[in-house]
Amino acid sequence: MKTIFVVDDSDTNLAKAEEALEDQFNVMTLPSAAKMFELLEKIKPDLILLDIEMPVMDGFSALERLKEGNWAGIPVLFLTGTINAAIEERSSALGAIGIVTKPFSPSGLLEQINSHI
Fold first, then answer.
1. Phi-psi label, residue 53: left if phi above 0, alpha if psi -120 to 50, beta otherwise
2. Cβ contacts of 72 within 8 Å, gap of 6 or more
3. Which of 27, 74, 92, 104 is the most buried (most CB within 10 A)?
4. Rounded to whole angstroms, how far apart are CA atoms 11 and 97?
């Protein structure tokens, strides 16, 4: 079973994503980018679902760090409640494979993920 990290500072979003994905994937929910990097030392996921707007380290900064390290090959799909041209351009420039807008539907989230792994 493939492993997905879901990184979001909202417990509600973490629970909703886990519920949508747990039947098809091994889901690891993480409340911050710092926790994600701790777990990356032990586990390499098949995909990271990463919130853009988080305190301390936002999703853009986290993706930049991922691309610099041993994790450059892990696909990253951004989560965001705010979508605009600047966010789309920056996401693409950093190498994100796509953006899922919040609130997301479970079926839409599964469709996005299944199209990338």
1. beta
2. 66
3. 27
4. 24
Output the domain CATH number for residue 52. 3.40.50.2300
pTM, whole model, 2 decimals?
0.95
Structural domain boundaries, residue 100: 3-114
* Per-residue pLDDT reduced to its tens digit, 16-73: 999 999 999 999 999 999 999 999 999 999 999 999 999 999 999 999 999 987 899 9
Query: Residue 6 — φ and ψ, nearest 5°?
Result: -115, 115
| Local structure of residue 66 (DSSP, 8 states) | H
User: What's the structural domain count of the chain?
Assistant: 1
Q: Are 33 and 61 in contact, with CB atoms under 8 Å apart?
A: yes
Give pLDDT tens digits for 1-28: 999 999 999 999 999 999 999 999 999 9
